Here is the input.
Amino acid sequence: MSCLDEIKTMTLKLLKKIFSNSLNEYYSKEEINTLFHILIEFYLGINKINYIQDPLYIISKKNISLIESKIKMIQKKIPIQYIIGEVEHKNIKFKVNKYVLIPRPETIELCDWIIFNQKNKCKILDIGTGSGLIALILKKYITGSIVHAWDKSPLILKIAKENALKNNIEINFKIVDILKNVKVNDKFDIIVSNPPYVDKSEMQFIDESIVKYEPHSAIFVEGNDNLIFYKKIIQYSKDALNSNGTLYLECHIDRINFVKNILKINNFKNIKIKEDLFGRKRMIKACI
Here is the structure.
């Protein structure tokens, strides 16, 4: 796409053609179309309707160079969410970068499950909050809720705090490493977590862009026990949940039954496993 250096202006339609030709060896036609419209809406303020109505709209040299730089990043398989620096879910915009995991659809489904089940005015703890996605969504959609969010990294919590501030959502953030012996100083009605659950031996089966660009600490489990986060969270929740309080966890499909057994051993009751939209068993909840 270096030929663009000599072009002063071009139409939107031609830009899309060059964009597609630059990426057709990396992505499918549908993926390229999605990426193109994400970029031109975010950087140029041109949505799909604008494109359809005026494909001959003239793009300036400055904006051509901008899109060219983003194409080079896409060719390197850098996730589009990191390229534009944000994602939006449930009418909340989240800043994301290499320090926080890109939110997955099943995590939004987990939030929806909690919102559907939960009455108003409850106290919630999100363990391993990352970008703050779960905490912010629950606070916004469960009326009168008080939400606490923990993460072990000050750098990650800084991003979560920025997201809360930007969206005018009040969250009580705290630096806590759940793998340490955490004292129970508070009680909650709901505890929720999407902890690391992928074994490092499985890295070879993970998409290249995830392995290369997303934070390993949010995905892979250090050591030999790939259930260590679940064990620690369940152990803590047993004492930190109010009577009839509920623990919600996102899980690996191959290990969710092991998590269920750990919950049973720790005297949790009313254990329910939920499938995601693709029919995969990815979420579990239990009461104490």
Summary: Residues 2 and 208 are 26 Å apart (CA to CA). The mean pLDDT is 94. The chain is about 40% helix and 20% strand. The two ends are 59 Å apart (CA to CA).
